[in-house]
Model the fold of this input.
Amino acid sequence: MVEVIDNGSAPRLVVFDLDGTLYPRELYTGLILDVIGAMFVELRGDPPEQAEAKVAELRELMRTEWSSTSTTSFVLANGIDVDEWRAYREAHLSIVDGVRPDERVVRELERLRAVVPIALLTNNTAGAAEAILDRIGVGVAGFTGVVSADDVGGRPKPDPGAFRVLLERFDVDAREVWGVGDRYDIDVRPLRELGGAGITVDGPADLPEAVDFLVGRAS
Done:
């Protein structure tokens, strides 16, 4: 389902989330839960049963509070350093293996970029994001710019600081920026706090409707 959180502006920049937005969330949730469980055992020294309990807690949050659940925020809240998390995820998580080319995503992003610049803001590392985008078929070149975990330091989404990095890079007022993502609290709310607007989607199947709205608003 598409939900528009409007501020009345015409977009000068549209910023997309990656995971669960440009490819289905089902492709990564199980994989990332397994990686987090293994990381708690390996890096924190948790007994397996304690790690399993933490994973079960995160799985339930994903089931009941998807819009406000960030795996990055969860692992940081459980004592893992942000750089440790990124390095461990990069070494052990291969989401790209399950991703498939998606002509619909490529087509809709091209259609939107024809009328307004588009950016990607992701908590993935640059290397992981590039691999996923290549597999989808859009590539990094399909965006006007990409801001990854490597660019935001200790301020990953949903920290508004991640969005400030993007705003500074594009030299654009937040009030003229629209976010598109599958989780309101992670992908849209921080931008709203800065004055922007957004659209929540349930996944790539909703992109045509979201793009229709944005093209109409930008024209």
Q: What stands out?
A: The chain has ten helices and six strands. Residues 3-25+99-218 form a domain with the Rossmann fold fold (CATH 3.40.50.1000). The mean pLDDT is 96.
